[in-house]
Amino acid sequence: MYLPDAIVQYILSGMTIGSIYAFVALGFNIIYNTTGIINFAQGEFLMLGGMFMVACCNLLHLPIPAGAIVSIVLVVIVGLLIERITIRPVKDASIVTLIIITIGVSIFIKAGTAFVTKDSFTYPPFPGPDYVRIFNATISVQSLWILGVACYYRPKWCGKNNHV
User: Fold this and answer.
1) What pTM value is reported for the model?
2) Predicted confidence band at 44 (pLDDT cuts at 50, 70, 90)?
């Protein structure tokens, strides 16, 4: 691969990974602004969504849109249950106590998932071609979806039509 093609590939890959990090950071920000605490189980909820999606697509053989909806609903239910069981009973506790509880929830979700499986999984690619070539660089259709959603939910400083 020639240097210009490699640079385009690195830029596209970096923008995709950076967009994923931005979504995770947005989740941290939303939770902190609504609750006033940092939720250290945030990454585990992201992982649960992926695990539920794999189960829906690979085990239940649901199509990707249906699997995504079912996964989102399941993660919301898990989040509500954890809030009712761990956070609500001690809602008047100190911030440090609440943060420690989120660390415990994180450990609990990791251990529960590791108890179920320690394998790596994939699910079918989005409908359409697997990859698209841009200036001799290859980008997956999933990456285009990620970049598209990230552009849709751009921050205020990027211009008008902020949707968040």
Assistant:
1) 0.73
2) very high
